[in-house]
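Q: Predict the bound structure with succinic acid.
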Amino acid sequence: MKHLSTHTIIGAVALSSLVLAGCGGARSGGAGGGDGDGDGDGATAGQETFSLKFSHVTTESTPKGQAAVWFEEELEEASDGRIQVEVYPNSELYGDKDEMQAIQSNSVQMLAPASAKFTTVAPAIQVLDLPFLFDSPEDIPTVAAPDTAVGEAIFANEQLEENGMKVLALWDNGFKQIHSNNKTEQPSDIEGNSYRIQPSDVLKSQIEAWGGEATPLAFAEVYNALQQGLIDGGENTYSNIESQNMHTVQEHIAESNHGYIGYILVVNQDFFDSLPEDLQQILTETAEGASEFNREGATEVNEESKRVIEEAGGTEITVWTEEQRQAFKDLVVPSVYDEYRDVIGDEIIDELLANQE
Ligand code: SIN
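A: Predicted complex:
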């Protein structure tokens, strides 16, 4: 895929500086409050300290989990202990259903949800959920990097700003594969089956275009739903499948590389504004550093998870041929892209389609 021009997406997703009223401030005590006692680890006496809760839904072994740990360690060191970070992985503190509310109320200061999780607050971010947006894993860092057109659509998203979130970075997981109990080699293999999707309208349209039934479920609920036979399959990256043990209750994985999971690293805007300027800069730079760390390792983490699944031996992995991939692609490109013109923007969709081979 060729890269989009920046102006196209910036023009379609205008800048705004609105901040959600009513968010708790960092100095107001509670979850986001600095304690003001100057006794933070390494902080100089008299300096205010701040605590930052970072909640996410994957395990620490995944691309997001590893980047979150890196961010915690680096930010505490770079801020000389003036920002104390607590990372809550694996839906321990907040899950898919309540994390958006939690960041807007400043109960948690940072999140890194997958693009699909923003559908209700910032539907245009579903651009990252469009099927077959990338041709190969090598395209992801360039097409979705912060200084590219797709990346800028995320960073300049006025809906996120209106909801009190400041975008700090875009992190990768990688390509989604289709997991199921039947072998998925052609669209007719999807028909009549129920697939868990993240709560995204674009993903619902994709599954339905292939003839399947789309069932939105929180990430933490997927293993149980598969294990109990409430759904037939789903779509996820190797690292998410393996770390949640989904492969242990699925007989097949089609290596389809048909979609992408990317994360929008967001901070509560009021919390960010409450930090002294030097800490704002340190936070911003550390988030960028975490992006580099994440990008360097995400592909390898997924490859390692694929190896773990293969070694476990209970799940057959079938790599789609170009012809098989094309048969699925023909059912969703351009139809699903066209369906979301109003949500994502005509100019972005036109340019994405023009760049599809
Ligand atoms: C995640 O990677 O954060 C979870 C994605 C999903 O809900 O499948």
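A: The CA atoms of residues 121 and 291 lie 23 Å apart.
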